[in-house]
Amino acid sequence: MRLDRRTFMGLGTVATCGFAQRSLAAPAANSPRHFVPVQPELFAASGGQPNCWADFDNDGDLDLFVGFKADLPNRLYRNDHGKFTEIGADLGMADLPDTRAAAWGDFNADGHIDLYVGFSRRSGTSNKLYRNDGDGKHFIDIAREMGVDVKGETRQISWIDFDNDGRVDLFVAFRDAPNMLFHNEGNRFVEVAKDMGVDDPRKTVGAVWFDYNLDGRLDLFVANQDGTLNGLFRNDGSRFVDVAHEMGMDAAGRPSTSGSNGPSVIDYNNDGHLDLFVAGYGANFLFKNDGRGNFTDVAPALGVAGGEKATPSNWGDYDNDGRPDVYVSSYIDKAVNEKDYLFHNDGDRFTNVLPPEFMKHGATHGIQWADFDGDGALDLAIANNNPGGTHYLYRNTLPAERARRSLQVLVLDERGRYTRAGSEVRIYAPGTRTVLGSRLVDTGSGYCSQNVMPVHFGLPRGGRVDVEVTTMTKDRRRITRVANVDPNKLSRRMLVVKVGAGAADDIHKKRS
């Protein structure tokens, strides 16, 4: 089954959206006190590291994969209308080696979502590529035959089409070896990182792909640890060039005890330009994009620079006020005093509103926002790898009226397949060029993971919006517009946009 419009009608409209501590005495609309644990006995195991969402069985529900520390089995939770069942062992995916990365992607473009899993070098286990042979009933490891059974301290995995040839390529970052880039030749992958100039030998622990200079090619930002410089690799077509230093984004001069971890891309101020947040040891960065390919770090001014051991970051408009918020988790070598942050976007500044229950059961690694139950409010999945930690899933019980102030956009190719990671989605006030929000189709998020799921927008008020999707093609940036979309008339508030052949206009006419 391909990932077409009918497949996702049941997925649900994903509702998205100094450290002064906001009072949490009364659960106001922007308060995270609306979160409650889902099946806590099922999600109670410690040791969780990467976690990522996808509808692996094409039944319309987002499912959750969680990778674990050594000797703890990896888990795949099937979602059946909001109730989860662990089936990783049944499908032969309950690997025991220390799992540090995982990413969903349709590498063979057959409409069935596949999974690449990365392990630590000390485990002695080669990375695995689980091919989904049909609606999630059979997964087979074909990493060796496809040429991607590599070993190392694997971190960020990304399924992206870096050369815009229509085939999904594979990027694998390592903490202890040069990064690798595998070009998809159709029946096999060929490693081209050295030839393309992205074989970064520094200690990469996070990466994200986006078209920062608007030239129609995905560029690569890598977050590096132990005092090594960060990299921003501009994609010039035939080769990548590291421009982080000249852009002022390499974090030069920091000590060996500092380093960057979890980058994430977001338009935090709704100006239509994609900004870059980088969580890290020592300091976080929030690079504001001026729209002309220049970035300025505004983290100190906006109150998001702090944190001793910030690890991943992930954005989601949990209160549907139209401004994206960010969850940042922290990791301490000893299992004491971890401190997470949930930064609410107040417009001109961010305020930490982390509730007490999250302080007790917070994340150290995986963070993912997703509307798993399709009610319009973003839910939260975390992963904590410390002894006694959990990998809880929290349901967002935002009041129904507020939850409905949302729109979800799923970007597929012209044949209904998920092959367009790195595409950009913007919404506008109808009939205008007034931007209400911008999102990136996931290329790496929430700690060494990649999701296959729609992007989400919280809406500051009800009513219609115009939707614009920008995809990268051989002809550079291609824009597909869908005008006058009424979220209230969409099944579970989801718009599916197929890029090419006027598919988006057809969808809008059928579903409005």
* Poorly predicted residue ranges: 1-27, 501-512
Q: What's the total helix number?
A: 8
Cα end-to-end separation:
25 Å
Strand order, biggest sheet?
A: 9-8-7-6-32
Strand content: 35-45%
Q: Based on Cα principal axes, name the global outline.
A: globular
Largest sheet: 5 strands, mixed
State the oligomer.
single chain
The chain-level structural class is: mainly beta
Helix content: under 10%
* Counted beta strands: 36
Question: Any overview of this molecule?
Answer:
It is a single chain. This protein is mainly beta and 512 residues long. 7% of the residues lie in helices and 38% in strands. The protein has 8 helices and 36 strands. The strands form 9 sheets. Strands 9-8-7-6-32 form a 5-stranded mixed beta sheet. It has a 4-stranded antiparallel beta sheet with strand order 1-28-27-26, with no helix packed on it. A 4-stranded antiparallel beta sheet has the order 2-3-4-5, with no helix packed on it. A hairpin with an 8-residue loop joins β6 (99-105) and β7. 57% of the residues are buried. Residues 1-27 and 501-512 have low confidence and may be disordered.
